[in-house]
Amino acid sequence: MCNLYRMTKNADEVAKWFAALNEAAGANFGAEVYPGYPGLVVAEGRVRQMNWGFPVVLKGKKGQSLKPKPVTNARDDKLTTAFWRDSFAKRRCLIPVTKWAEPEGKAGAMTRTWYRLGGHEMFAVAGLWRPTAEWGDAYTMVMADACAAMFDVHDRMPVILTADQYEQWQHGSEDEAMALVRTCDLELAVERTDALWVSGERPAQTSLL
User: Given a cut of 60, is residue 208 above it in pLDDT?
Assistant: First the structure.
C-alpha cells in the first residue's frame, strides 16, 4: 500500500502536463504528501486540491465516535464494495505523483524505499474522489498486485496510468476502467535510503506555487 508520496511539480506544471484547467491557484501543499494532508488531483478536467484519504469514523470501547481516519488506498478487489462503489462508478480521477515510498526493513527500524516510473519526472496514479462532510473533497489511490521490482517490499502498489489511458480511466464505463486496474508492466526506478520510515514530526506543509 502507499501512505507517503512526493509531488514536486506545482499546479501550473500539473495543469500543463495533463492539459487541464488550473483551479488550484494558491494551493498550499507539501512536496511530501501524508495521509490526511492536501494534495493535487486532476478531476473533471480540472487541477484541484483535495485531502488524501476518504474519512472513516470508528467507534471507541464505549461506543463513542473517534476522530476520522483517512483511508488512502482502495484495493482492486474492493472497488465494487459499498465503501468505494459510488466513487468508482462516478468519480474517477488522476493523481500526479513524482515517486512513492514504502517501508522496508525490520520492525522499529524501517527505512524509506522510493519508487518512480523510470524516465519520467511525473506520472499519474489511478484515483477516486468524493465530497465528505469531514474534510471537503477527498481522494484515494487505487491499488493492484505489486510488480516484481517491489514485491519483496510490499505485495501491492499504486495503479499507474499512461497518457493514452487517462480518458478511459476518467470517462470510460466501469468495465473499461476496471480493465486498467492491473499490475504495472513498466520499468520502475528504485531508490533505497537510510531515512527512517517513522522519524518524529512530519515536515511542515510549504507551498509549491
Answer: no
Could you tell me which of 152, 149, 155, 136 has the C-alpha nearest to residue 186? 149
Q: Which are the contacts of 54, defined by CB distance < 8 A and separation ≥ 6?
A: 70, 71, 83, 87, 128, 130, 132, 138, 140
Cα–Cα distance between 92 and 100 in angstroms, integer? 20
H or E, element range at 143 = strand 136-145
Strand 21-22 to 46-52 pairing: parallel
CA distance 142 to 158: 6
Question: pLDDT category, 64, cuts 50, 70, 90?
Answer: confident
C-alpha 195/C-alpha 123 separation (Å) is 24
Q: Looking at 34-48, 56-70, 92-106, 119-133, which range is the least confident one? A: 56-70
Note whether 55 and 68 are within 8 A (CB): yes
pTM over cut 0.85: yes
Burial bucket for residue 133 (CB in 10 Å: 0-12, 13-18, 19+): exposed
* Residue whose C-alpha cell reads 504528501 in the numeric block: 33
Predicted confidence (pLDDT) at residue 131 exceeds the cutoff of 60:
yes
Domains of the chain: 5-55+68-196 (3.90.1680.10)
